[in-house]
Amino acid sequence: MSDASIHSQVPENEASFGDYFALLKPRVMSLVVFTAMVGLLAAPGGVHPFIAFCAILFIAIGGGASGALNMWYDSDIDQVMSRTKSRPIPSGKVTREEAFAIGMTLSVMSVVMLGLATNWFAAGLLAFTIFFYVVIYTMWLKRWTPQNIVIGGAAGAFPPMVGWAAVTGGVSVESVLMFTLIFMWTPPHFWALCLFMKSDYKDAGVPMLHVTHGRAVTRNHILVYTLLLAAIAVSMAFTSIGGWIYLTVAVVMNAIFVAGAVSIWRRSDAQCEADNHKREKSFFGFSLLYLFLHFGAILAEVALAPYGLGGW
């Protein structure tokens, strides 16, 4: 039987491996993996490479579990929003029950295995991260307050702390600053996206800031959070994980980021509509590079330290 005839016998709504993998939000998972890896490698002491690999793997699985549980709970609003209606549950590829079972199974597995591979403090921090994202953010904050992404952003900021804890068994100023960098980055990053979204969040009944208070207020918030973020990002250069490489990256990137926020702040709704939110889209795209290069600079400091090229 030919491949074409076999494919024709498969129902259009039958789930593939890709559909189940999509439940884990692989884009978000990639951010979790990268920041957790930087936290782990920057931590003093170090661990065996195999232990490090296992730690990152289980942190990634925990992040994916959170994504599956988020899709399980948010399947009703995902059906309404154009950005999310093609996800596995709204598209009919995966049932809510399957998503819940996968999310819960992976949550327990990731926490237990991380505890066995590293230490139970790191495992407890991973468990709290999953709980925070699913219960505090998804079930409570997201549909209740326009500050949802501010408080809820903590869920995406925990991975470098978990990676650090996997090595040290605790927290430190450095791991808290890595957490704070992501925490303060999340609102301007996400609000920039909201500015050029159509009516998705309004249609879904999600009280995002631009829905409840308007785009002008949202632009004000982007500027304030970007200024606070810049101060935190630069200050991290003067800790044990910083150095001249990180400081150079932080100064350049934050100068560009602040300039972008000021440019957005000065615009009116009419100007945004006239050029189809060109600056907001550019700011959002740059925000992804911003976070990657900050953590990449920390990684560069770690890699060059043995040769006397990193740090101060």
From TrEMBL:
List the residue ranges forming a coiled coil, or say none.
none
Q: Recorded E.C. number(s)?
A: 2.5.1.141
Q: Which domain of life is it from?
A: Bacteria
Question: Which CDD domains does this one have?
Answer: PT_UbiA_Cox10 (cd13957)
Q: In which pathway does it act?
A: Porphyrin-containing compound metabolism; heme O biosynthesis; heme O from protoheme: step 1/1
Which NCBIfam families has this protein been placed in?
A: cyoE_ctaB, PRK04375.1-2
Output this protein's name.
Answer: Protoheme IX farnesyltransferase
Q: Which organism is it from?
A: Cognatishimia maritima
Lineage runs: Bacteria, Pseudomonadati, Pseudomonadota, Alphaproteobacteria, Rhodobacterales
